[in-house]
Write a structure and sequence with these properties.
Blueprint: H1 4-14, E1 19-22, H2 29-36, E2 41-44, H3 48-62, E3 66-70, H4 74-77, H5 80-88, E4 93-97, H6 115-119, H7 135-146, H8 154-163, H9 167-180, E5 198-199, E6 202-207, E7 211-217, E8 221-232, E9 235-246, H10 249-273
Parallel strand pairs: 1-2, 1-3, 3-4
Antiparallel strand pairs: 5-6, 6-7, 7-8, 8-9
């Protein structure tokens, strides 16, 4: 007979999960053992809250749901802060907690907490596995819902574009900042106004649900990023437009050097925003 923990881990592997963050405990030891025999790496943390934040941040950086696991009761409750962090930041995450047997869980035993109802306000979906036969379907639903963006607007699209850049794009931007700093050029628009709303490096200049304009002016050029979100039936279309006004030879030289990299970075960011 196939164990439920083996079914669960196989379903996680089918979703492309490479690592799980968490704290082993009595109620998840079967899952931990199944993970040991799988291709998934278990990263043990000192505290459940750390596991939740690591999973949420993994989801934010990769666009794939981060996964964390805890035992029941207080161990599961320690995930709440990380769950709220992920929900408010639109970071895909799947949390797995231990539980007692269905027939004994309502008998006021030590550390029994109604985890399903506790997490409903903090998640898109909160449910309990009551049959091993439902595990593959429930795992698929959890990962699908974790990555669904039903209410995509211009701000959300811009935050996703600028907040989930590929690693190579972040390296290029870091290199650019190192090279331009000796020339006295800005590395962000943070100094353009006290308390100005920022997304990534750029101050937000104007915003509607359908269009967001961000950017700043520098001595060599002025830069604007315009993100438009339109609907075509049930689909959402995201368009990014970059506008540049050069002021001098430094601006024209800078633009000529940066343009090949710009043509790589912007499409990569659009792919992230579109999921």
């Amino acid at each position: 007979m196939v164990k439920g923990s083996d079914l669960l881990v196989a379903a996680l592997e089918n979703e492309g999960v490479e690592r799980v963050f968490g704290v082993p405990g009595e109620e998840n030891l079967d899952v931990v053992e199944s993970l040991r025999k799988s291709s998934i790496k278990l990263i043990v943390t000192r505290h459940e809250q750390a596991a939740a934040f690591m999973a949420a941040t993994y989801g934010r950086l990769t666009g794939k749901p981060g996964v964390c696991i805890t035992t029941l009761g207080p161990g599961a409750l320690n995930l709440t802060t990380g769950a709220a962090y992920a929900l408010l930041g639109a970071m895909p995450m799947v949390m797995l907690t231990g539980q007692k047997g269905i027939l004994s869980s309502r008998q006021a035993k030590f550390q029994i907490v109604d985890i399903v109802n506790t997490f409903r306000p903090l998640t898109k979906l909160s449910l309990q596995i009551v049959s091993g036969a439902t595990i593959p379907t429930l795992v698929r639903d959890a990962f699908r819902i974790a990555t669904t963006q039903p209410d995509l607007d211009a701000r959300h699209a811009t935050e996703t574009m600028l907040g989930q850049q590929p690693r190579w794009a972040r390296w290029l931007i870091a290199l650019r900042n190192v090279l331009v700093t000796p020339l006295g050029l800005k590395t962000s628009g943070a100094g353009d106004g006290v308390g100005r709303d920022m997304i990534g490096l750029f101050p937000v200049l104007s915003e509607t649900p359908e269009r967001l304009v961000a950017g700043f002016n520098d001595k060599h050029l002025d830069f604007r990023l315009v993100v438009d979100v339109t609907s075509t039936g049930a689909a959402r279309n995201i368009t990014a437009t970059t506008l540049v006004l050069t002021h001098n030879w430094l601006g024209r030289t800078y633009l000529a050097v940066i343009m090949p990299f710009h043509r790589l970075i912007v499409p990569a960011m659009l792919r992230k925003a579109g999921g």
